[in-house]
Write a structure and sequence with these properties.
Blueprint lengths: L1 H23 L4 E6 L3 E7 L8 E6 L2 E15 L5 E14 L10 E5 L2 E7 L3 H4 L10
Antiparallel strand pairs: 1-2, 2-7, 3-4, 4-5, 6-7
Length: 135
């Protein structure tokens, strides 16, 4: 009887995950807006929790992604439960040279994630290069 229960639990979890992927959740949208002192990236995915969103800075790349995490109720031999993470959204963007990558921040507000990319100081954007005379 235990084997049959495991089959039904496993199948039920897969059906729930597939329903979420193929119709039970909405698509993540991304909008980029320019403000006076920064760029703002707005991410929205109705029905997706804030902890499903991820924002990473990898060198000069900004990585934005959401994961759908499914945890099985079935206990493993080691006492843990099965977890499955399925990527729902992924964008890798170049961080522009005029953005201060060390000051990038993200906040969750009203079901949306806003990633703020502040501009560098004006003085760092433009400078005159002196030409040295070697002879």
């Amino acid at each position: 009887m235990k084997a049959i229960e495991n089959v039904f639990q496993g199948t039920g979890g897969q059906v729930d995950l597939l329903n979420t992927l193929y119709g039970g959740s909405s698509q993540t949208t991304m909008k980029v807006e320019r403000e006076d002192e920064r760029l703002v990236i707005n991410l929205s995915a109705p029905g997706v929790s804030a902890n499903s969103f991820n924002v990473l800075v990898e060198g000069n790349k900004l990585v934005l992604y959401t994961l759908l995490v499914s945890t099985s109720n079935r206990q493993q031999e080691d006492g843990g439960s099965q977890r499955l993470a399925v990527p729902m959204f992924l964008r890798v963007l170049d961080i522009p040279s005029f953005v201060n990558a060390d000051q990038i921040e993200a906040i969750h507000e009203h079901g949306k994630v806003m990633v703020m990319l502040p501009f560098k100081d004006e003085e760092h954007l433009h400078r005159r290069i002196d030409i040295k005379d070697l002879f």
